[in-house]
Specification:
The chain is elongated. It is 36% helix and 14% strand. It contains 6 helices and 5 strands, in the order αββαβββαααα.
Length: 176
Amino acid sequence: MATKAVRAKKLKVAIRGPGKTAIKLTVNGETHELLIEPRRTLLNALRKDLGLTGTKKACDEGTCGTCTVLLEGKPIYACMALAIECDGKSVETIESLSKDGQLHPIQRAFIAEDALQCGFCTPGQIMSVKALLDENPNPTLDDVKRVLSGNLCRCGAYPKLFQAALRAADLVRTGR
């Protein structure tokens, strides 16, 4: 039976771990070099190593969407991705949206539509809407419902979330 190292050599795959290993993440446009254990999730790397606490930790098992971030422009649950798997990739978190003290149109739409109650799920909801609008600037209500189906809201603010996403689409399209 071949050892792990022999199998990795045959596959030309570098073995990383079990100790801490160096990775590079580009988070919100800024490159960070981190020394992490291979078992560390992207969520914990963002929150604990980089101090970006806007991405929330809730279920920690990939069922609620609260920790949604964009990896290479695609929405993922940060609690389900190992940081080491994201080495060399681009991550966008809720902290990236406001610029020069101005809220992003999606954030403004969520406020205008009162699309939050406790607000805990809001960052994940907003990042899912951002991914949708980056891909489809003119979504239908069904598109919005589909993209937000992976984000749970314990408060049940879904009708307002849907309206906020549609308003955000209008604001983004019109550049307001």
